[in-house]
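Team,

Forwarding the record for the chain on the shared tracking sheet. I've put the sequence and predicted structure together so nobody has to dig through attachments.
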Amino acid sequence: MKLYEFITPSDPITFYAPDNDIAEAIALFVGNGKAGIKSVDGNEVPNTITFITGIAENQLERLKETMNKRINEVIAAGKTFAVCDAGFREEYDELTKNSTDTNRVEKWDNKHRSSMSDWCGYARNLKIKPVPTGGKGI
């Protein structure tokens, strides 16, 4: 799993994903085109330049495809969202038992989140289903 930053104007947020396709899908879905993404290892995540200005049509089609074929991986990536920068991710993972101790996750969030927006809570609690073939959208 690779570590990514979910870029918003407020809190530092990181999450894990197996590859750029899943990272981009979860970031587009959670951020609704209003958040950025970058890989912590410094490698560029292709096709994410338009996050701030909205979701481009080609991104939307790729998002639908990834959401339909790899929905469980997208949801799993969402469950790893944490209000912490990459330098504190190891500490967070140890304290929260890799995001599985929900009480500690909530305490961490309450202590470290400065924004009214709860991006991480939203990402961790996604209830999404694949888009039916021929469907109009997400």
